[in-house]
Amino acid sequence: STIQKQRQELQVLIAELKDRDQELNDMVAVHQRQLLAWEGDRQKVLTLAERCSLLNHELNKRNEIIKSLTKRLKFLESQQNDSKTTFENTQQKFKELSQKVTDATVHCQALEEKNQSLHCSVLDLSLKTGQLQAREQELLTMLKLKDEAILETTDYITEFTSKFKKLESALRAAKTEEFSLKKEKQDLKLRLKELILETNKLKGDLCEKVKENNKQQEEIIYLQQENGCLRNELALFVEKAKRKDQLLQLAKSKQARTDTELSILRQIYAKQQRDLQFLHVNLESSQELTQ
């Protein structure tokens, strides 16, 4: 009866061991599935980490591009300010040159008027000289006809000769002044031509500066648009990175829960191993008693 009881107990223990073995097999299968899921999650996390590093690298590149574009924009703005300053200086020089041209024109007109008056004076002097020469001829004729009046008219002729010399010197002075005025007029004409050429050159430079300024403004507008697009792309990348960080945090929390469950399962597995060892010891002791 004792042996039958022990046999029944052994059968019950064997049935329990089979149940425990089945439970352990189920737990091992669940554990394997959890390990596979954990491995898949780990691969996903590694993939996400790699993509996150790539996105960070691309974000750094975009930041460098934005910095370079910002520097270029600042340089173009400073260049535009320099162009504006040069444009204002050119306008000021153009105004000064226009004033100089106006002054030179007024001076030329004054010199022309003076030259005209001197020419009229020369004509008057020439007319007077002709008249005096005719008068001299008449006087010579009178002298030839009237030898008696030579002594009386000697003083008059001497005085007239001195006046004639004075008129000749005045005529030479007027001619010299007329020559100097002509030369000055030619110099002023040359200077006026030079000023006109310089003015045209400054107008050409001004047009080129205006064209260059317009091109720079168009380039600045294009760069501002490109900068806005890059900022929008950067905001999208930042939003994607935030989402990836959120997913990574969720994956980390899931991994923590999985690790906790795995540690609990390991503890349960260790406890069942100890129970199984204890049952094996009991079974061996029972077999010894049975023997």
UniProtKB/TrEMBL annotation:
<keyword id="KW-0175">Coiled coil</keyword>
<feature type="coiled-coil region">
    <location>
        <begin position="59"/>
        <end position="114"/>
    </location>
</feature>
<feature type="coiled-coil region">
    <location>
        <begin position="3"/>
        <end position="34"/>
    </location>
</feature>
<feature type="coiled-coil region">
    <location>
        <begin position="157"/>
        <end position="205"/>
    </location>
</feature>
<protein>
    <submittedName>
        <fullName>CCD62 protein</fullName>
    </submittedName>
</protein>
